[in-house]
Specification:
Blueprint (H helix, E strand, L loop, with lengths): L14 E5 L2 E5 L1 H14 L7 H10 L19 E3 L6 H17 L4 H12 L15 H10 L3 E3 L7 E3 L5 H4 L10 H15 L3 E5 L3 H4 L8 E6 L6 E9 L5 E7 L4 E4 L4 H6 L4 E9 L2
Helix pairs in contact: 2-3, 3-4
């Protein structure tokens, strides 16, 4: 998801520091929250990694939805914030905790290393433009890292072409894009995406194919909005009704929740939604 649609004033006192050459922005409360979360999830690992991720994801239920938490300061740093999550930072944090759990790691610096790997191109923070701003590129890049697999085509999806240029055509929405170097690098990312095909499962075909979706799969909502690829993301979770629901940081309830309606029905209420991309986290 493009983290652009809302503004938020941070009220926590953040400090920047360096661990293993990582420049990190994190409040003492968030560092403690990471350490507490590592203790909380210890022992919940299941043989099915997807089920492990949904179990971790549900420990965040009721956490407030907050946008723009990564837009801090004048330079890009690795922001750690568990007290307010947008849909993308929610997915990133859950995947990072899941990765540590399966690796048997439980230190704060292990967590920040995992988070950096997931959030940035080729796993390395190198300025604002190295962040994976467009979620379709997030999927492609994390597939290259061996962390996930795009399974959209396997569950009935088909390729589409779409011009992706929202950030460069809405430069005024992004303070970091006042810098011409950042702007040109973002345009390069957009050009890269515009030379790729996006595989999408149309909204009207989701219910017929949802038996192929597993708990823990990453669901990305495609859109008809000009210049955008994805507007929202979360995890699939098969609930007691036997249907796939969406576990996500919701802009509706403004907190992490499981959608009350199954995914196929939930999406029908989202204006300009066209379907989904689906990526499966790998062991």
């Amino acid at each position: 998801m493009i983290r652009i649609l809302f503004t938020y004033t941070l009220v926590c006192l953040y400090s920047s520091f360096t661990i293993n050459a990582q420049q990190i922005t994190c409040s003492p409360a968030d560092q403690k929250a990471v350490e507490n979360k590592l203790t909380e999830i210890d022992g919940i690992q299941e043989d099915d990694f997807g089920k492990t991720l949904t179990a971790i994801g549900k420990t965040f239920l009721k956490t407030p939805y907050v946008a723009k938490t990564l837009e801090i300061g004048d330079t890009e740093t690795l922001v750690v914030n568990l007290q307010g999550l947008d849909c993308t930072t929610y997915v990133e944090n859950v995947l990072a905790f899941g990765t540590l759990l399966k690796q048997g790691k439980s230190d704060f610096d292990d967590f920040t290393e995992a988070l950096e790997t997931i959030r940035y191109k080729d796993g390395a923070l190198n300025g604002y433009a190295s962040r994976l701003h467009y979620f379709s590129e997030w999927i492609v890049n994390n597939e290259k890292k061996g962390l996930i697999k795009d399974i959209t085509s396997e569950i009935g999806g088909s390729e589409i072409k779409k011009d992706i240029d929202f950030m460069s055509t809405h430069r005024d929405l992004y303070p970091f894009l006042t810098d011409d170097t950042n702007f040109e690098k973002i345009k390069a990312s957009e050009n890269y995406l515009n030379n790729q095909s996006i595989c999408m499962l149309p909204q009207d075909q989701i219910e017929a194919n949802e038996h192929l979706i597993k708990s823990g799969d990453i669901i990305a909502l495609t859109t008809s909005i000009n210049g955008l690829d994805i507007t929202h993301t979360g995890f699939a979770t098969r609930e007691k009704d036997g249907r796939i629901h969406l576990l996500h940081a919701s802009t509706g309830s403004m907190e992490v929740e499981v959608s009350k309606k199954p995914l196929a029905e939930y999406l029908k209420g989202i204006k300009k939604n066209t379907g989904i991309m689906v990526a499966r986290p790998l062991r």
